[in-house]
Amino acid sequence: MRILVIEDEIKTVQLIKQGLEEQQCEVDVAYDGLMGFQLASRNHYNLIISDIILPGINGLELCKKLRANGISFPILLLTALGTTDDKIIGLDSGADDYLVKPFEFKELMARIRALTRRSIGSIQTANVLKIADLEMDLDTKSVSRAGNEIILTAKEFSLLEYFIRHQGRVISKAELAEKIWDVTFDTGTNVIEVYVNFVRKKIDKDFDTKLLHTQIGMGYVLKMPN
Amino acid sequence: MRILVIEDEIKTVQLIKQGLEEQQCEVDVAYDGLMGFQLASRNHYNLIISDIILPGINGLELCKKLRANGISFPILLLTALGTTDDKIIGLDSGADDYLVKPFEFKELMARIRALTRRSIGSIQTANVLKIADLEMDLDTKSVSRAGNEIILTAKEFSLLEYFIRHQGRVISKAELAEKIWDVTFDTGTNVIEVYVNFVRKKIDKDFDTKLLHTQIGMGYVLKMPN
DNA sequence: ACTAAACATTAAAATTCCCTTAAAATGCAC
DNA sequence: GTGCATTTTAAGGGAATTTTAATGTTTAGT
């Protein structure tokens, strides 16, 4: 776990750095906003902890700059500015969490765990897409509904995957043709209808609540019925 | 944006639900932990807001159960339990954020924005067009007025979409023929009148304030009456 | 108030869209 | 190449949508 701390107050830095290192984290420290920005741009971190009041660029501008540059790792703002409006400005400038000084160290640690859980978890947890009782495991390429295994062919799998990833959205045949069949314009074929029928037979036929619906003239949706 | 609120205190629910709906969020409500779990398992949400003290399963157990079941959308715990240890327990049971009651509503909204920013890969918009209490979701191709769902066919949808996009402007039949029916000149048909009638039946008939008006000799306007 | 034009409404006709089935083509392993 | 599974094409039928057409109502101008 790599963490960047941006803070000019030596005492706070010491406290955080020591605490984090006890949890086996690698900690980099920047003492002003510019240095923080440079470090964050050049290296990959699991988390940035930043003060708002900083020499050079302040923490809010730093957040915005980082986000504008496409840097997406979690940012926790840690500051003495404690009014509700301060918090709103902080969060809206791109931070993921906001903790007001003085704080208890164990709360900081819990918030750090919450923020970093995702990035770590995503490596370990299985790659499973879900809607209602229908599950799709992208690693094992297996699909099941209500626990019953469903065997799909490659095309059927791609099609269903696209539907699950865009569940709730009505997807036009033109879009499916482009994304699943890689054809840009209609070639007067009905493959899509045939494949929707195949998928339906497998995921919906034996079940009461149908998931794959057609909106005539618009496309298909995968969703729970109302 | 779909949000699930799990809370047994009616007043708090009212406040949150109303505030979120003003921001064009779809809000589902569960009044106890079990119902919350069932809704969260069956549907896809962008965020769950849950109280800790709940009838049935409490908020902490709910978090753990949801995470154990592979449900990964953000959870915000909202509770009166404000000690640091409460927060730590909450965050460590799988929640992403923890807000102590009483809170200012605008802080809740800012935290919601921060939590959902990520999951909405495309912040670009929830893709909703609106006029008065009439809403049109371009993704789900669904339309509602004052919360009541309205089913439209493809042509009706296109027509209404054109009206909403150009609300307040008087649109001639010639323009509609060109934009919606792709014909450049009049073929002595009355399809447009028929379809305006269809749309009116669905969006205006059951409501007091009519939105789709005709300006004889000029065309149609979608607007609030004066 | 009367008339012609513009629009609204309704029902039936025409068409499009989609589902389904089966057969043909393709790809793949042996 | 043969046989099997997958993918694509083709065709028929049914239902929902779209259009036409006929009739009723409102509006604007005289």
UniProtKB/TrEMBL annotation, chains A, B:
The entry's keywords: DNA-binding, Phosphoprotein, Transcription, Transcription regulation, Two-component regulatory system
Sites of 4-aspartylphosphate modification: D51
Record-annotated Response regulatory domain positions: 2-116
The protein's name in its UniProt record: Response regulator
Chain ranges of the OmpR/PhoB-type domain: 126-224
DNA-binding region location: 126-224
Cytoplasm recorded as keyword: no
Lineage: Bacteria, Pseudomonadati, Bacteroidota, Cytophagia, Cytophagales
Keyword Transcription tagged: yes
Organism, as annotated: Arcicella gelida
